[in-house]
Amino acid sequence: VGFLQHCCCQLSKMGDTWAQVPWPRPPHPAMLLVSLLLAAGVMHSDAGTSCPVLCTCHNHVVDCSSQRLFSVPPDLPMDTQNLSLAHNRITAVPPGYLTCYMELWVLDLRNNSLMELPPGLFLHAKRLAHLDLSYNNLSHVPADMFQEAHGLVHIDLSHNPWLRRVHPQAFQGLVQLRDLDLSFGGLAFLSLEALEGLPGLVTLQIGGNPWVCGCTMEPLLKWLRNRIQRCTADSQLAECRGPPEVEGAPLFSLTEESFKACHLTLTLDDYLFIAFVGFVVSIASVATNFLLGITANCCHRWSKASEEEEI
């Protein structure tokens, strides 16, 4: 299976090269098959055991960390299970980069300069369980970021200071996810929909974000309070940055009483009273302006009469 997988991956990458090879006459099908198998066998022996430059490879572990890399290594051993690209200067991961590495179990991309990941990056990473994207420059987590990566158990998105938005369906389908770290980012709001589809969640880190604890946060906080016994959270680090009346308050200290104002509704009597008060204020305003006008007119006449008497 690994051999055929390697053939498919390598031949798909070399499709353009094969297309440019000049054939003097139509090759015999048997000869063509032999040629392809021989070529694939050579590639398998090379790519299956070779280790990228500046990396170390041992027991299915490829370590390319702390090498000042600006891009990901182009080819990895086909049986790579643990890939570390941490502590580099990588700014982007090309689309389809993980297509050939279906045995990948751990991917460490922490402390790089990633601003986003290409859609469908994890489509073929069925066995990926641990993903570390901390200490990068991610600005948002889109809906398709972890598409088909249903085996993920641990995701670390911490220390992404520009992370402002997590799509409500960002973690959709990750039923095995146990640990999620969203701490020390730029999140002011997180929708309940983003988390309620994670039945196996055990640890949630959300501290160090500028949370705005307004009415829109109530559903999430209510859900978290109900799960606090089953889900460990960094409650000491999670604080409200606004509105002013709850600034500095621990996120998990807010109760239903804190959001009482969000549920105030006006009855018909309330609307009638407001309308009556508005009407009275309007009449009072008109009457006040009328009195001020009469007073000003009287003062003007009195001043004019005084001037004529002096003359």
UniProtKB/TrEMBL annotation:
Q: Which InterPro entries match?
A: Cys-rich_flank_reg_C, KCNMA1_auxiliary, Leu-rich_rpt, Leu-rich_rpt_typical-subtyp, LRR_dom_sf, LRRNT
The LRRCT domain sits at 209-263
- What subcellular compartments does it reside in? Cell membrane
Annotated LRRNT domain ranges read 50-82
Stated membrane topology is: Single-pass membrane protein
Q: Which UniProt keywords apply?
A: Cell membrane, Disulfide bond, Ion channel, Ion transport, Leucine-rich repeat, Membrane, Repeat, Signal, Transmembrane, Transmembrane helix, Transport
A single GO molecular function term of this UniProt record: voltage-gated potassium channel activity
Q: Where is the signal peptide?
A: 1-47
Q: Please state the protein's primary subcellular location.
A: membrane
Q: Which GO terms describe its cellular component?
A: voltage-gated potassium channel complex
Q: Is the keyword Repeat in the record?
A: yes
List membrane-spanning regions: 271-294
- Role of this protein: Auxiliary protein of the large-conductance, voltage and calcium-activated potassium channel (BK alpha). Modulates gating properties by producing a marked shift in the BK channel's voltage dependence of activation in the hyperpolarizing direction, and in the absence of calcium.
Fill in the subunit field for this protein.
Interacts with KCNMA1.
What is this protein's record name? Answer: Leucine-rich repeat-containing protein 55
Give the classification, highest ranks. Eukaryota, Metazoa, Chordata, Craniata, Vertebrata
The gene that this protein is the product of is: LRRC55
